[in-house]
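Fold these two proteins, one after the other.
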Amino acid sequence: MSIEIIVQSFYNFVVRKTFFKILIFLFFSSNSFACPLLQVPIGSPVSSAAETFEFLDTYNEDVYGADDIPRYQKFAIDYCEGSSLENADLEVTVYQSRISSISLISTDPNFKNEIYEFTKNYIQDPGEEVKKDDWLGYKNLSVGNLIIFYSKIKIMKEIVEVLEITNTEMVDYMSGEEVIDVLG
């Protein structure tokens, strides 16, 4: 066997091995993999979602009426370490023992574009124009039957930044008069 064939075989082996390592690194270091709150499918049973959102262990379907929508609120950073969500709230709503929506909300005017940075890094870039102080509105970032809205709204002279995630089946069960804030 010639030295050229041995060198070429060794080179091919190293290139394939390096390529494989890069693919593994990219797969296991993806942002959504590192953010458990994005790993809970909308529509999933509360019992399986409680593996990520331990506060759902307190959910008892016998306590709520058929149309009630309990809403749990927690610190978002606890469910996505290393993200930009240090001052954001996580809201999870439940309808008939299934997750109906996951929302992120930032109301602190001292931390502008916190939800924007999260959305850009973990979901999709809603565009540079939404970073402007005077921008109000929403961006539809939906994919397939997954409904995702990034928005900025003004409430009592303050800008509130929101990311809402639901799906076509549960979109009607994420807000309204039926929502009950769960304390604890």
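Now the second one:
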Amino acid sequence: MLTGTAPTSRMEEETVMALACTLYERGARAESFRLLRRLSASGKRTAPLLYNMALCLEEAGQGEQAVSCLEKALSCLSGGKRERLPTGDEEALRILYERQCGQAEYRFPMRAEEAACLPDYARERILRLLIDLCARRNDGARVRSLAASLPGRRFDNVEKALMHTAEKEG
């Protein structure tokens, strides 16, 4: 199933997404992107899928398409499309994902369940990558606007992006 048609069940979608994340982490970006495209072609539009596609597109030098994916990912989160976790103790899952995500860098793939369980964390990761891409495009106004929408904490990449755009503008 993983090499042929589009996934047909939720379990198959989750399996394909997990495999795409693992492939990306192991450096097989093209294979990861191929699987993510298959999920997208099946009509699946989730924040993790779009974020992961953006990571691949950025790696391929397709910044405009990556920005578009990240904007769509943000709209998935703010559009109320959060899914309830299907089974299990949601509080235990939330705690485990918080610990797992606390160890991850923002430029690694986002697992499907992370956005459902930790939407604020997913939003933060999407914004951080979007800030990087906007800084590369010398879009200082957008960098400042996005940075201002990040609550409380400051991040090294955001600080660098703000400095980079200030230097380019000044």
